[in-house]
Design a protein that fits this description.
This protein has three domains: 85 residues, Winged helix-like DNA-binding domain superfamily/Winged helix DNA-binding domain (Arc Repressor Mutant, subunit A, Orthogonal Bundle), CATH 1.10.10.10; 95 residues, Periplasmic binding protein-like II (D-Maltodextrin-Binding Protein, domain 2, 3-Layer(aba) Sandwich), CATH 3.40.190; 99 residues, Periplasmic binding protein-like II (D-Maltodextrin-Binding Protein, domain 2). Helices cover 44% and strands 21% of the residues. The chain is built from ten helices and eleven strands. The strands form three sheets. Strands 3, 4, 5, 6, 9, 10 and 11 form a seven-stranded mixed sheet that branches. The longest helix is centred in the first third of the chain and has 30 residues. The chain starts with a helix and ends in a 7-residue tail after the last helix. 27% of the residues are buried.
């Protein structure tokens, strides 16, 4: 017997209505009827008297209802216990991440996490992928998130998300009938070349466009890169989540192409290190909120 099927039966019996139960369960009424019929067929019993217009339980159905009431009462108690445990969770959550993640995505998730776990302290480091790796290796921080795959025998990396990037500039610099070759007339803005042992990750986007950029301005902060673009200093490849507001109000213009540009986001931790309950809980929280996919 599947617990969900029993839950659907319980809701119908409790509300004495298939339609009200369906609304409460947020599924269609035909689906509720079908699932309960499956339950009856599986168990070889008849739970509802279908001779009447009212929703009436058969004697067997009444017995099922009484037992289901106890089962779901215990489940509710377990959920309350889990909620209490979450509220009692304490300790320090230490995260090292790329600056745009700290400034935009992670701060929102951390705020929500603190609301549910007020006893937790936060340590947040913002830096380049190389710096993030060093912080994790020195065990100053427990969780890391970056865009560059770090090759080190003591680091464990896992791709957990795809992040979309767009090639953007200020509307003042965009000419009519824009062509990629027109970028030669505009300054390039990007990350510092010295921060990467190999090619800067976003350079693969330029490879796809068959264009070799000339970086006039280099900065290890994508927030700085965005402000330079806003000030009309050139073009840059930036994560969509840091420019969404500016795109919506046309302060920044996306240089559209037929290609979609995405970079993998990696979760980083030190090999052999058992994550603390706080870190494990936070990763579970992120996955439940569809921020990343750990499994």
């Amino acid at each position: 017997m599947e617990l969900n099927h029993l839950k659907y039966f319980y809701e119908v019996a409790k509300k004495k209505s298939f339609s009200k139960a369906a609304k409460s369960l947020r599924i269609s009424q035909p689906s509720v009827s079908k699932l309960i019929k499956n339950l009856e067929n599986t168990q070889g019993v008849q739970l509802f008297d279908r001779q009447n217009k009212e929703v009436l339980l058969t004697p067997v159905g009444q017995s099922y209802f009484e037992k289901a009431k106890i089962i779901f009462s215990h489940l509710e108690e377990l959920e309350n216990i889990n909620e209490l445990l979450e509220n009692e969770l304490s300790g320090t959550l230490s995260i090292a991440a790329s600056d745009n993640l700290c400034n935009y995505l992670l701060t929102k998730q951390i705020s929500l996490f603190i609301e549910r776990n007020p006893k937790i302290d936060i340590q947040l480091f913002s830096g380049t992928s190389k710096e993030i790796g060093e912080e994790i290796l020195e065990q100053k921080y427990e969780l890391g998130f970056c865009y560059t795959f770090l090759n080190h025998y003591s680091l464990s990396l896992k791709e957990v998300k795809k992040v979309e990037f767009k090639l953007v500039c200020s509307s003042e610099l965009l000419e009519k009938d824009f062509q990629i070759s027109d970028l030669k007339k505009i300054n390039g803005i990007g990350s510092r070349l010295g921060d990467y042992e190999k090619k800067i990750p976003v350079y693969q986007f330029f490879d796809q466009l068959n264009f070799v950029p000339q970086l006039k301005i280099q900065s290890n902060s994508q927030e700085v890169q965005k402000k330079l673009v806003l000030n009309g200093q050139g073009y840059a490849f930036l994560p969509v989540h840091i420019i969404a507001e500016e795109l919506n109000c046309n302060k920044i213009v996306s240089l559209e192409t037929d290609l979609k540009f995405e970079l993998p986001l990696y979760f980083v931790q030190r090999k052999g290190r058992t994550l603390s309950p706080v870190s494990t809980k936070f990763l579970d929280f992120l996955e439940k909120n569809n921020f990343l996919k750990m499994s």
